[in-house]
Amino acid sequence: xxxxxxxxxxxxxxxxxxxxxxxxxxxxxxxxxxxxxxxxxxxxxxxxxxxxxxxxxxxxxxxxxxxxxxxxxxxxxxxxxxxxxxxxxxxxxxxxxxxxxxxxxxxxxxxxxxxxxxxxxxxxxxxxxxxxxxxxxxxxxxxxxxxxxxxxxxxxxxxxxxxxxxxxxxxxxxxxxxxxxxxxxxxxxxxxxxxxxxxxxxxxxxxxxxxxxxxxxxxxxxxxxxxxxxxxxxxxxxxxxxxxxxxxxxxxxxxxxxxxxxxxxxxxxxxxxxxxxxxxxxxxxxxxxxxxxxxxxxxxxxxxxxxxxxxxxxxxxxx
Amino acid sequence: xxxxxxxxxxxxxxxxxxxxxxxxxxxxxxxxxxxxxxxxxxxxxxxxxxxxxxxxxxxxxxxxxxxxxxxxxxxxxxxxxxxxxxxxxxxxxxxxxxxxxxxxxxxxxxxxxxxxxxxxxxxxxxxxxxxxxxxxxxxxxxxxxxxxxxxxxxxxxxxxxxxxxxxxxxxxxxxxxxxxxxxxxxxxxxxxxxxxxxxxxxxxxxxxxxxxxxxxxxxxxxxxxxxxxxxxxxxxxxxxxxxxxxxxxxxxxxxxxxxxxxxxxxxxxxxxxxxxxxxxxxxxxxxxxxxxxxxxxxxxxxxxxxxxxxxxxxxxxxxxxxxxxxxxxxxxxxxxxxxxxxxxxxxxxxxxxxxxxxxxxxxxxxxxxxxxxxxxxxxxxxxxxxxxxxxxxxxxxxxxxxxxxxxxxxxxxxxxxxxxxxxxxxxxxxxxxxxxxxxxxxxxxxxxxxxxxxxxxxxxxxxxxxxxxxxxxxxxxxxxxxxxxxxxxxxxxxxxxxxxxxxxxxxxxxxxxxxxxxxxxxxxxxxxxxxxxxxxxxxxxxxxxxxxxxxxxxxxxxxxxxxxxxxxxxxxxxxxxxxxxxxxxxxxxxxxxxxxxxxxxxxxxxxxxxxxxxxxxxxxxxxxxxxxxxxxxxxxxxxxxxxxxx
Lengths: 319, 646
Hints:
Chain A is α+β, with helices and mostly antiparallel strands and 319 residues long. Chain A is 36% helix and 20% strand. In chain A, a hairpin with a 3-residue loop joins strand 6 and strand 7 (162-167). Chain B has helices at 16-26, 31-37, 41-70, 80-115, 123-145, 170-198, 211-243, 256-273, 276-290, 297-311, 326-338, 340-355, 363-386, 388-394, 398-428, 434-460, 477-507, 548-551, 594-611, 614-632, and strands at residues 2-3, 11-13, 537-539, 559-564, 571-575, 582-587.
């Protein structure tokens, strides 16, 4: 394996996952040791005692030893790692419940079929903004996440940073993340939620604090202006067609049932972590979302080549 | 079952004339009539086994299709809709239509034979439970085959299962099919419980029954308690879907976690219900091949019951990620960790049985012995998911898929195939071929482990469950290909089993009554057994009636050739629940088509509920009423029109 698997949980990069990881290794090692020991006992038992015949009637039944000592010793030894696991579980559960410090940031994350809506909460409305699928956080700071669901149950999971918490309609679940070092961390919906459950990814990008502040400041701005003719035509098309579902702040596209596109060009991935962002990917996605994510709620657009180029030109502008 | 007139039954020896008389009393008529009307537990048991095995094949084929789709990244063998229905039907089929019914089949066939009785306590209920099981299987597959199979996974969470997100009839098929199946399970469970407590041979006190009986009895007590929960859950779901009730609608005071609680209160005990009888098969089969009694019989029996008692208190470990309070979860975490203790006890009892015995290696022994290792692998991965924080990472990844397949294939399918090799001679009079058996075993064993051992790693590498495809850069590609190869190897092993059964039915070596020199009562009668099972009701004085002399058990002198004749009608002996002292003569029913008609009527009622059709409902209900009238009509010749005996 050249690169470590992005969703693997045998390594951790954040405080909450750090609490869980040693316990995972402990239970895993105990499990492997138990399998090896029992396997060896079984193999050895069969080898050493086997009667080398195939006809059972030639081996008369015997009462044999009671064997109770095996149970005393076996169950006695088994109890030790079990009790350790039990105590450790309760301790880790307590430690993982709340972050060590005051949260620096509060996020409202809402699972939709099949994408993630992310709102950066703040006391004043002017300081809140909404984005989708890509979540920037400052390195080292605890971040509180409030989890909601817009339709069916989903589950929020970023294995390098935190275990899973479901998003359930009608209730708000709490979780938290705190990245130890800067980097991109893959996340994924893990509760079956319909046809495109497989393609409901997300990405958390932990930035150094200064970089995060710059990113946040840009997100608070309305979408960049269309300048060229192509961009203006693209914006008009977007307002007319895409605005039924999407929002681009500063335009008449203001719907909330699909990802906010105000700063789409700044995102690293599109389609809930299905494609790497870029002109080609955007064009392909807009023309044929049903080919890339069959059954997703975005219809194929059927734009002409010229129209598509203009829409993409405008979207590329949305830094 | 019915208490017969008070008389002193005759005691006598097995004789030719007596056997002929019993045969005429008990034999079902040949042909279609006998097929429809028989209430013989052996015929019903075999039907259960064959039907469940066919469902195993269907569920397996569904798995192979999914493995083709997952063999490489971004393949397009299946579209998401097909994949979703397939993984749902795969789970529903194997968990509900295979795993439990196959064990019911074995217990149906074997119980009266190991208990020294002539049939189950309620033979007609037995037939009813089979017909309803068959009907519910057909009902569920009617949806799937018309393109409307259940599509929300076997645990079917709301709101995805509700009409807003699932407007087709898919979930109605699932809801109603499961309620129908629940009737079959409940009827069967009641029958098993009464059979275990009231029809054991005289002298077979509770501490002398085989562990298979303990396992099936425990499982069925649990079924009786928890099946209402899941039937209710599905009924409420159906009401929400059809009549706009709001049980699962938080906007009107309902709650989605209500579904999850109701489902898992049933779901987790069910897991034990589909492994405990199979563990019983190992506990009874292994000692035969180790040529000694099971180590720590009493503790293993107690562990069986303890597992189920603890098993009622672990359901929340399926819900650790739903945001429940930590303190509450830690109790369920503790219970889920400690439930490994009775399992560990059983494992050490099996190991000691091998170490202190003289194992004779046969195919059946290989299946039973290898199950110990598979059981431990499935057990320790379960122990990992029991720890709440660890489960937050493991849950809903392929680690859990690997875990549950070690549980279901390791602890159910392997013992069941071992049981086929072990009891096939009793069922048919012929032995399965041992050479083909070795090929069969090793193909299954290697295929299974090749498929599912690396899957733990797929899970640890983060692959989520229930995804119809995955990207090439996730690190799962090689592992998935290996699993697909393993799955096909396993399928080849299943084909070898079928080949062995087909060949051995015609050409297998004659078995005789007791080819394994085994200790329990079923091996004291001919293979296959006569329709009345026992010419005389045996009297049992030890746990191993056929070994007791050679084991030198003090005071053990079971009587197999002399006992109650009970030859006036179809009769068997009722005994007291704990000590199995003779208590009463039980009248057994004649063959009847009433159970089949009732099952057909009931199925029509459910089809009517599916289609919301009043006239169909009326026809179904009428048919049910007629069947019940015929069933319960008092018969003068059996004294049923006189007051009950005081």
